[in-house]
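From the methods appendix. Each design record in this collection lists the discretized structure first, followed by the designed amino acid sequence. Records were kept in a plain field format so they could be parsed without special tools. The example shown here is representative of the layout used throughout.

RECORD:
C-ALPHA CELLS (396 positions):
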C-alpha cells in the first residue's frame, strides 16, 4: 500500500502537529508501508519543492504563500497539482490528511478528482479556531462532508466537529513511545549548562520580606508557549510562586514571536527576582533529558487537542498540572495521574504547583500513576493498528 500523508507541518517544524505527523509516518513505514509526505514550508520560495528522505520516509516540502491571505489559494493550487502529478507518476492507494482545513480540503478534493479514498484527521486547533475563520470555513465543511473517513484524536474534537456536520468520526488518540520517554536521573551536564545548579539553603530578601530558600524548584513547560497554551496564566502563577520560594520557569521550546514574546520580556522586567529560561527548539530525541530536570510539569491551555507534551511528561513520571480542555480530559484524571485546574485561574495553578513542590511523596505517586496510565492506554502500536483498521475498512 502506498500512502500519501498531507500535513501542514512536519519536522523540523515546531508544534504538536509536526510531531504527530512524523510519528504516524514512521509507524506506517516501520510496518512495511510506503509513505510519501507532502507539506508546505516557509523555508523554500513559492512554487519550489524539494524531496528528501527523513527517517525512512520520503518527504516533499514545497514553498508556501500561507503567510499572505491573498496568495494562500495559490499554495492550495500548488498542493493539488503536486499530488496530481505524483499520483500520475507513482499512483497512491490512499490520501491521508493530518489537519482538517487546508490539508483536509486538498486530500478530499484530490481524492474525488483522482478517484482514490481520502482520510482526514482532526487534530484540535482545526476545530477550535481554524473552522471559525471565514476564509477557511468552506474548506473545513468540504472536508467534513466529503472525506471517505474522518478521525480525531480527542472526544471533545469529535463533539465539536459533529456540531458543524454530523457524521461518523473515529477516535484515534495520540500515542507516546515509553521506551524513549521514560524516567531518568537528572542530566547534571544539562543542569549546569542551563544554570540550574542546586542552591544551598539561605535567607534572602524578596519584596522586603526575608524567606528561606530551599533547593531550587523547576516548573516546566514543553512546546511552543503562546496565548492558546495559557501563557499569561502560567506567568502569573510563576510570579506568585517565586515570591514564596526559589524557583525557575523552564520553557523547553520557544515562545511565539510577537505579543507573546513581548509578554515574557515584560514579566522579566517587572519581576527582577524571576528566573525564566527559554531553551529554543529541542529535538524530540533530546527531550527526555530536559524532562528529567522538571519537578512539576504544567500545561494550562485555553484550547487544545491531545498534547503530545503531556503524554511525554506522564511517560517520564512527571507530576503534571493541566486544564480540562480538549483531549486533556481524555488523559488526566484529577488526583489520580495528575491534577486539573480551571482555565485562566492563575491563583489555583500557583496553589497546586506549591502543593506538589511541598509534597514530594504525592509528586512521585502521581508521576508513577501517570506512566502506568499512558503505558496501558496510549501505545504506539495501538495508534498504528487503529489507522490500519481505517484503511482496511476502505478496502485497502
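DESIGN:
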Amino acid at each position: 500500500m502506498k500512502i500519501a500523508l498531507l500535513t501542514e507541518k512536519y519536522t523540523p517544524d515546531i508544534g504538536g502537529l509536526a510531531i504527530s505527523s512524523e510519528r504516524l509516518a514512521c509507524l506506517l513505514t516501520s510496518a512495511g508501508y510506503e509513505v510519501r509526505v507532502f507539506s508546505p514550508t516557509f523555508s523554500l520560495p513559492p512554487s519550489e519543492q524539494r524531496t528528501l528522505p527523513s527517517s525512512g520516509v520520503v518527504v516533499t516540502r514545497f514553498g508556501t504563500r500561507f503567510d499572505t491571505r491573498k496568495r494562500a489559494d495559490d499554495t492550495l493550487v500548488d498542493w493539488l497539482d503536486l499530488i496530481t502529478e505524483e499520483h500520475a507518476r507513482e499512483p497512491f492507494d490512499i490520501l491521508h490528511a493530518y489537519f482538517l482545513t487546508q490539508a483536509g480540503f486538498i486530500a478530499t478534493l484530490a481524492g474525488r478528482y483522482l478517484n482514490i479514498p481520502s482520510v482526514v484527521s482532526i487534530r484540535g486547533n482545526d476545530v477550535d479556531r481554524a473552522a471559525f475563520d471565514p476564509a477557511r470555513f468552506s474548506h473545513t465543511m468540504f472536508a467534513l462532508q466529503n472525506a471517505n473517513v474522518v478521525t480525531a484524536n480527542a472526544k471533545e474534537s469529535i463533539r465539536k466537529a459533529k456540531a458543524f456536520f454530523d457524521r461518523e468520526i473515529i477516535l484515534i488518540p495520540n500515542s507516546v513511545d515509553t521506551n524513549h520517554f521514560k524516567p531518568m536521573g537528572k542530566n547534571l551536564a544539562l543542569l549546569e549548562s542551563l544554570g540550574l545548579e542546586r542552591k544551598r539553603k539561605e535567607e534572602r530578601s524578596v519584596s522586603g520580606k526575608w524567606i528561606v530558600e530551599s533547593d531550587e524548584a523547576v516548573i516546566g513547560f514543553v512546546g511552543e508557549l503562546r496565548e492558546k497554551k495559557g501563557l499569561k496564566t502560567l506567568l502569573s502563577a510563576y510570579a506568585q510562586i517565586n515570591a514564596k520560594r526559589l524557583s525557575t520557569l523552564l520553557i523547553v521550546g520557544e515562545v511565539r514571536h510577537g505579543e507573546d514574546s513581548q509578554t515574557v520580556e515584560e514579566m522579566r522586567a517587572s519581576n527582577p527576582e524571576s528566573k525564566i529560561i527559554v531553551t529554543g527548539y529541542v529535538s524530540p530525541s533530546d527531550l527526555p533529558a530536559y524532562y528529567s530536570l522538571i519537578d512539576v510539569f504544567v500545561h494550562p491551555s485555553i484550547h487544545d487537542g491531545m498534547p503530545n507534551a503531556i503524554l511525554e511528561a506522564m511517560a517520564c513520571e512527571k507530576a503534571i498540572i493541566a486544564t480540562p480542555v480538549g483531549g486533556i480530559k481524555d488523559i488526566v484524571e484529577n488526583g489520580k495521574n495528575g491534577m486539573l485546574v480551571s482555565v485562566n485561574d492563575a491563583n489555583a495553578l500557583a496553589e497546586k504547583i506549591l502543593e506538589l513542590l511541598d509534597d514530594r511523596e504525592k509528586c512521585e505517586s502521581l508521576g508513577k500513576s501517570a506512566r502506568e496510565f499512558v503505558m496501558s492506554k496510549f501505545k504506539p502500536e495501538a495508534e498504528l493498528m487503529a489507522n490500519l483498521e481505517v484503511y482496511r475498512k476502505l478496502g485497502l
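APPENDIX NOTE: The chain has a mean pLDDT of 91.
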